[in-house]
Specification:
By secondary structure, this protein is an alpha+beta fold. Helices cover about 25% and strands about 35% of the residues.
Length: about 70
């Protein structure tokens, strides 16, 4: 799977949505939606997020931010 920086992906194990921030050799560098620590993952461990999954993750972060739950 070829994924570019800026794409949203879903972890196949957890179902969590991540933002691709780059590649490191054969691995992808992922950051949680809204920021946080970068993790490295094999491309086989993720799939591209659907539009609904991407919008849900972005909206959930925006709502939590408006409530003061996240910076």
């Amino acid at each position: 799977m070829s994924v570019k920086a800026g794409a949203y992906v879903v972890d196949r194990r957890t179902g969590k949505v991540w933002l691709v921030v780059g590649a490191e050799g054969p691995s992808l560098r992922l950051r949680p939606v809204g920021g946080g620590r970068v993790r490295v993952c094999a491309p086989e461990g993720v799939r591209e997020a659907t539009t609904q999954e991407r919008m849900s993750a972005v909206t959930a972060y925006a709502n939590a931010r408006s409530r003061g739950e996240v910076p």
